[in-house]
Amino acid sequence: MRRLFAWLAIPCCAALLAGWTTLGRAADASDPAPAPSLDRVPVILIPGLLGSRLARSDNGVELWPGSTRKLLTSDYEELALRIDPETLEPIDDGLVPSGIFEGAAGKDFYRQIMQELRDSGGYHLAYPGQRAGEEKARLYVFTYDWRQDNVRTVQKLDELIEQIRRDYDDPSLRVDVIAHSMGGLVVQYFERYGTVDVLGGNSFQVTGLGLSKLRRIVLLGTPNQGTVTAVHKFLNGYRVGFSGLPTEGVATMPSTYQLFPHPLVDWVVNINGQKLNFDIFDVEFWRHYEWSIFDHRIQRRMDRHRDVWPAQDVFERWFQKRLDRGRRFAWSLMVPAGDVPLLKPLLLGADCVPTPRRLVFENVEAESVARLRPEQILAPRPGVDYESLMFAPGDGSVTLSSLLSREDMGGAVPRWEQATPEAGRELIVCARHDALTSDADLLRALIQYLLAPDPAPASTMH
Fold it and tell me: For residue 263, is pLDDT > 80?
């Protein structure tokens, strides 16, 4: 399948690396590391979904990821959020972030990026509440409960930044942020709206309330226009080794709805490759096709453990509420900022791994069945290239088009009305989603970007 995308990936990489000249040039492993300075802007590392360890606050017992044995054997039902049937909000289950998930079973997630920031960037790992002394090149790790609504996480991020300002005794301090995957959505919402929850209605006036606290942003593999992979997880659950989180568990987590493809993204087609106008954020769509908690098999499974899962009517009302917020979250990040001078992030990603782009609906015995992969199609149509139709270049989880905010919206929204990153601020390599944080070229480019001096004001340039 790698060969299938060769004609797409090679020109794409060449173009993006050429654009990188706006920041200098493509990083090379033999380049000397930038000279660190003692008086530097602190940097915050934000991991993505599953990237923070979760433990019980009362006894410190770790539930995610836990031991290697747990990774191999657990169904992780205890990570499912409990739901208040009146407010349809999560009930506090006593789980708190207890550290970053650096790696497991010989696989690196965030260990390498932290090591590079220390060794090549000159940053020192710091913890909120530690007063900044002579050494000011600090690295903070923002761990959070990735199950929760991203707006709640935004509020926690603001608390961390305010504490860093107190540690530095500088109420106007700005920070740099490196965000992986879903973490990039968190920081972009914060930049646009601060801690204000704008998802209660359909008007998204970008205020830039978080701008005064941010200097530079780096996004690694962020699904800026959502990801079809999130839909896959709602149908199949999250697999981790030989264990996993069941689809009903995924459905209890507000953040997972906020990863769906943007409402206008072309994410589903029929067997002939023609676009279907299915609304992923409409609860009736899920009910009609009996997906996720509307699947009778899953309902029967939940009935056997109602001490874990909410009553079906409560779960369905919760589901609708989370879909509504997911839709608004997607729109809130795409609406133009108007006169608000948002930061232009550095985008780091990959384009060599076939990545889910669309689902295909096939009629089988008078029923429409969703196909996630080409080999599932029973009666393929001659001349239809299902590989290219259903997959696109990316990192295996996020397509390159979503990272760059260039997914096809069918002309429903003119390009000039979409919020898109500035061209030339991206570097694309060949890596999988969870390996972006350990790719040598991306790490070197990231550090060069963070340590580059701020441009001089226009009035002083000649």
Answer: yes
349 is a domain residue:
yes
* Rounded CA separation 430/420 (Å): 23
Residue 12 dihedral angles phi and psi, to the nearest 5°: -65, -50
pLDDT surpasses 70 at 11? no
In a domain, 382, yes or no: yes
Amino acid at 36: P
pLDDT band at 9 (very low <50, low <70, confident <90, very high): very low
Please indicate, yes or no, if residue 459 is contained in any of the structural domains.
Answer: no
Token pair, residue 253, equals 């987590």
One-letter amino acid identity for 135? E
pLDDT tens string 397-433: 999 999 999 876 654 554 444 555 554 589 999 999 9
Range of the domain at 287: 3-454
Please spell the DSSP secondary structure of 350-419, one letter per residue. Answer: E-SEEEE--EEEEEETTEEEEESSGGG-SSPPTT--HHHHHEEEEBSSSBHHHHTT----TTSS-GGGS-
User: How many domains are contained in the chain?
Assistant: 1
In 3D space, the residue among 73, 56, 55 whose CA is nearest the CA of residue 64 turns out to be 55
In the sheet that holds 175-180, the strands lie side by side as 124-125, 138-141, 43-46, 175-180, 214-220, 346-350, 426-429
Name residues whose C-beta falls within 8 Å of residue 156's C-beta, 6 or more positions apart in sequence.
142, 144
DSSP 8-state symbol, 9: H
